[in-house]
Amino acid sequence: MGIFKTKKNKRYSYTPRFYKGEANPFEIKHKFDAQRVTVQKTNLKGKFTTAIDDLKSNPNALANKRVSVIILILIVIFLWIIDFDLTLFFE
């Protein structure tokens, strides 16, 4: 009888009305998967090396320098606000 049989899902060959293309329109893919390089490695060392390589081969290196300078300035301002003694580094 049908007690131990599982019901199989029906398959339909539905194509959307206004879809023009070859790829599957129902495939869910992340927005930035084509640009990411670091999602392929599974171990920590592989992820780290691919992230460093991606950072080095970045065509927008000026933005990286700008962000690092802004972070450095913010760290100095934070240390000045908490009254950190910076003369420890200069003695």
What would the keywords be for this entry?
91 residues; mainly alpha; elongated; 2 helices
- Low-confidence parts lasting 5 or more residues at pLDDT below 50? none
Overall radius of gyration: 27 Å
Task: Give, in order, the helices and strands.
Answer: HH
Task: Indicate the percent of residues in helices.
Answer: 25-40%
Shape: elongated
Give the overall average pLDDT: 77
Number of alpha- plus pi-helical segments: 2
First-residue to last-residue Cα separation: 88 Å
Derived from helix and strand composition plus strand pairing, the structural class reads mainly alpha
Q: How many strands, which pairing sense, and closed or not: the largest β-sheet?
A: none
How much strand content do the residues show? Answer: under 5%
How many E-type strands?
A: 0
List the SSEs and their pairings.
Elements: H1 44-56, H2 61-81
Give a quick rundown of the structure.
By secondary structure, the chain is mainly α. 37% of the residues lie in helices and 0% in strands. It contains two helices and no strands.
